[in-house]
Design brief:
By secondary structure, the protein is mainly alpha-helical. Among the domains are: 1-46, His-Me finger endonuclease fold (3-Layer(aba) Sandwich), CATH 3.40.1800.10; 47-85. It has 3 helices and 2 strands, in the order ββααα. InterPro entries: Endonuclease_7, Endonuclease_7_sf, His-Me_finger_sf. Residues 81-122 are annotated as: Disordered. Residues 97-109 have a biased composition (Low complexity). One of its GO terms (molecular function) is endonuclease activity.
Length: 122
């Protein structure tokens, strides 16, 4: 197996293959891996969905950083990355919040301000 893999990890194909990887349910040997790749599989519980999510996460943030760098190089000023679920820049709304707050007593924030200012509801 080591010869078939040219002495390299079956995943990264860069580092020396020093660990025998196996399926934890069946015990079947899968391939030879380097220290980092073997540990990574263990940390992600050998779950392909979690591994794909991790790969997507890294790809998204790498691309996001490149976009910010390109914008800066083009002189577009400070640009920040957008995170899913974030309100737009300048918005004071929290994700999932409604347009006005009723704070559990049935009055909107505008009604509270008018009441505090001594104005009657119309």
């Amino acid at each position: 197996m080591l010869r078939d893999q040219d002495g390299l990890c079956a995943i990264c194909r860069v580092a020396p293959a020093v660990h025998v990887d196996h399926d934890h349910e069946t015990g079947a040997v899968r391939a030879l891996l380097c220290f980092n790749c073997n540990g990574g599989l263990g940390q992600f519980r050998d779950d392909p969905d979690v591994l794909r999510a991790a790969a997507d996460y890294v790809a998204f943030h790498t691309l996001s950083q490149r976009v910010v760098a390109l914008a800066a190089a083009a002189g577009l000023g400070p640009v920040r990355t957008v995170r899913l679920g974030e309100p737009p820049v300048g918005s004071h709304r929290r994700p999932g919040a409604r347009g006005t707050s009723t704070r559990g007593i049935g009055r909107s924030s505008g009604a509270r301000r008018r009441e505090q200012a001594g104005e009657a509801d119309g």
